[in-house]
Amino acid sequence: GNTPESRGTAFVVYEDIFDAKNACDHLSGFNVCNRYLVVLYYQSNKAFKRLDIDKKREELDKMKSKYGITTDDKK
Q1: Any idea where the RRM domain is (predicted)?
Q2: Is residue 14 part of a domain?
Q3: Which of 27, 36, 55, 74 matches a 20 to 30 Å C-alpha distance to 8?
Q4: CA–CA separation, 12 vs 5, rounded Å?
Q5: 21 φ/ψ sector (left φ>0, alpha ψ -120 to 50, else beta)
Q6: What residues have CB less than 8 Å from 37, skipping those under 6 apart?
């Protein structure tokens, strides 16, 4: 990545699931320039759930704004 939050992040797409599993099994924990690799599978269901939550929150904020509703989110 090129932002401070994503610096050092990379995404690799494999055509073969067996190659992806092999990479995950053998590269996770591998030391590169005194940094350890963390290899994870992409979990599309989590990504889509997060997008849905963000969209619902945005819609809710618009409705609150439209009807002048204020809430105290701190509890």
Answers
A1: 3-37
A2: yes
A3: 55
A4: 18
A5: alpha
A6: 27, 28, 29, 30, 31
For residue range 45-67, list pLDDT tens digits in order: 776 677 777 888 888 888 888 88
For residues 31 and 50, state if they share a domain.
no
Are 20 and 49 part of one and the same domain? no
Q: What is the pLDDT of residue 1?
A: 62
- Round to whole Å and give the CA distance between 68 and 65: 5
Element (H, E) at 41: none
Length of the chain: 75
- The H-assigned helical ranges of the chain are 17-27, 44-67
